[in-house]
Design goal:
12 helices; Rossmann fold; two-stranded antiparallel ribbon; 287 residues
Length: 287
Amino acid sequence: MINRLVCFGDSFTEGEGAWLEKTTEIEKQYEDTSVGRFKVAEFNYQYSWPKVLGDRLGVKVANLGSCGASNNYIFNSIFEYDKKHKINDNCLVVVMWSSSIRDKLPFFPTIFQNHSPIGLGWSLKEIFATQTIENQEITNFTTRFYKNDKDKEYIDKNLIPFMSEYFKPFITQVYDKEYYNLLNFSYIHFLQLFFKFKGCDYIFIDAFESMNSFGSDDKKWNLINKDNYWGFGETTAWDYLYKVGGDVFENLDLSYNPPGQNCHPNRHGYKIIAELIYDFYNKSLSI
């Protein structure tokens, strides 16, 4: 019998985009961007799928979703939480994976990657481009979240010019999808055995990109327990909402989402995600 729901993920788990008409106004009230973002996160929490799912299950909820989180961040946050709060057999743990190519690359400069969820998932244009939102000029990521002027100056004068040229030879000469295939498999394989060791129920689900998309025919994936993985290799939460249709995504006129990226669910979409996980739990894991 579970009494605690613990959820890990990125902005799709935190609840970003739940009600942009409201949260845009909240952000405007605070000159300190970090304070404004904290207040927005507090507001979004009540409409996030972990909160809705927890209410449906009648249990306490710990939502560890974090905007811009990479899979490496999500993976490590599980152990940080366990160290402090002890995952046990009374827990249901849900991990909603992010984009594989958000992971920061060990062979890219740390100073460059610390100023954005860089990896390969965000182009230079998306990171440093300026958007107009309600007549305000907003620069993605660096202006919104980071304030170290020396770092920004170094990045502007050195790393942006170099990395602009380096991305092409990296993609054509260095990039190998097997790197991500092995990385993703290893995250999941490790965690399914760790959760078995902890004696807890768990569910994996992909937010908007399939974790096995870099090598779906690789035999290693046969070692993954599909009974605990919603939509494994077939669909994502975002795909499911797209098929449902209707008012399930955030208002694109107010979104900070870079052009070309999948938009977040809104409060209606998050409720649907909560219901699909609830149904999956009852059919696959609930005793």
